[in-house]
Amino acid sequence: MKFKKQKHLLTQREEANAFRFLSNRRGLIDFSSNDYLGLSKGGDEFNGIQVKGSGGSRLLAGNYPEIEQFEKFLSEFHKCESALMFNSGYNANVGFFSSVPQKGDTILYDELIHASVKDGMRLSFAKSYSFKHNSIDDLNKKLKHAEGDVYVVVEGVYSMDGDSAPLLDLANFCNQEGLILVVDEAHSIGVFGKCGEGLVQSLGIEDRVPIRIVTFGKAIGAHGAAVLSDATVKSFLINFCRSFIYTTALPPHTIQSLSNSYGELKSGTLSLNLLQNISLFKAQFSKKESKCLISSDSAIQCVLFPGNEVVKNVSGLLVDSGFDVRPVLSPTVKKGKERIRICIHTFNTENEIINLANEIKKHLKN
Asked: I need a surface site. Which of 5, 85, 218, 273 has the fewest CB within 10 A?
C-alpha cells in the first residue's frame, strides 16, 4: 500500500485529536490573524508599477532600483549597516542559519524558537543545542558544549506564548562572552518602539545585536522579510545563501506595498493604538482569572485550556459566538499547555475586545 507510513502518522494525529485541516471562515470578528495593525486591509495604489513578477533571481534579472532603495531605507529606519530582502521569514531563517554559521561553529537557541530556525539549523554544518526558554543561566551552562563562533538565537516576541526574550540581559551577556546574538523580530516589528521599529530598537540595543531578522507578513501587512546586519554578512548571504540565490525576487508591487506600510508606521499612531487595545483586553481579567493567561505585553494573548479536546471545544464555542480565534494544540505546544491564541489588532473595537474577554471568562474554571 502506497504511503503506508504517512497514513499511519495521520491516524495517530486523528487519535490524539490533533489533526490539522484548512478552514475558510468568513463573517467572524478577526482575533486570529497576524495583521496586528490592519495594514493588509488597505488597498495599495501602485503608481503605475505593473503588478507582475520581477523576472528572476536578484543575481540574474530580478534586481531593480526600487528593491535596492527599500533596503537602504530599511537600514536607515532600523539603524543598521545593511539590509537584504528575502521572500519570507521562513526563507530568511532557513537561508541565514544554513549558510552563515560554519563547520566548527555552534548555535545555541531558545527551546521555543521558530520552526524555520530549526529547519535552517538542520541544514547547517554547525552544531546546535537548545537552552531553556528565556533562561540565561541555562544558556551559560550550554556554553560548555560550544566551539568556534557561537550564535545565540532568540525571538523578540515568541509566536505561541506572546512573551518576550530578556533582550537587555542577553545583549549584555553575549557582548561580555563574545557571542553573536541573533534576534528574530517577526512578531515585535510594528508592535514595539515609538514607530514600531521593534523590540531591539525600543530598548536602544541595536548596536549590541549583530543580526536581526524582520518579517513583513505580520504587522507590516504584506510579504517578505529582511536580514539586518553589517555589510560583510550581507555580502556573504548574496554569495552563499541558497534561499536567496536560487529564488525569484519579490516583485516591484510588493516593494511598493512595503514602502506604503512603513510610511504608515512612521506616524507612531498605529503602534500606540495597538498597545491601548492590548491593555484593554488584559484589563478585563481579574487577578485570579489572569492566572490562565500567559504573561504577555504583545499583540499575542494566550488563554490556557489544557487538553486538545477541551481547547477545541472552547474554540468552537467562541467561533459560534462570532469570534475568529484558533486553538493551539499539542504537539505544537507541550501537552497540558494547549491554549486559545488571540491576536489583538488596531481595528478591533472596544466592544469587540470586551465581549471576547467576557465569552472567554464563561469557560474558565473557578
From this structure: 5
Length of the chain: 366
What domains are defined for the chain?
Answer: 23-40+268-361 (3.90.1150.10), 65-265 (3.40.640.10)
Q: How far is CA 119 from CA 13, 92, 114, 122, in A?
A: 22, 11, 9, 5
Side-by-side strand order, sheet with 300-304:
300-304, 339-343, 326-328
pLDDT at 34 over 60: yes
Q: Which three cell numbers stand for residue 258?
A: 512595503
CA–CA separation, 153 and 97 (whole Å): 10
Spatial CA neighbour of 17 closest among 264, 250, 331, 227? 331
Q: State residue 215 phi and psi, 5-degree precision.
A: -120, 140
126-178 pLDDT, tens digit each: 999 999 999 999 999 999 999 999 999 999 999 999 999 999 999 999 999 99
The rounded distance, in Å, linking the Cα atoms of 308 and 333 is: 10
What secondary structure letter does DSSP report for 273?
Answer: H
CA distances from 272 to 38, 140, 293 (A): 13, 36, 22
H helices present in 16-105, as ranges:
65-77, 89-99
Count of beta carbons in the 10 Å neighbourhood of residue 311: 26
Q: Rounded distance, CA 149 to CA 160, Å?
A: 29
- Beta carbons of 79 and 258 less than 8 angstroms apart: no
Q: What is the DSSP string of 103-139?
A: TT-EEEEETT--HHHHHHHHT-SSEEEEE-TT-HHHH
Q: What is the largest CA-CA distance in the chain?
A: 62
pLDDT number for residue 4: 83
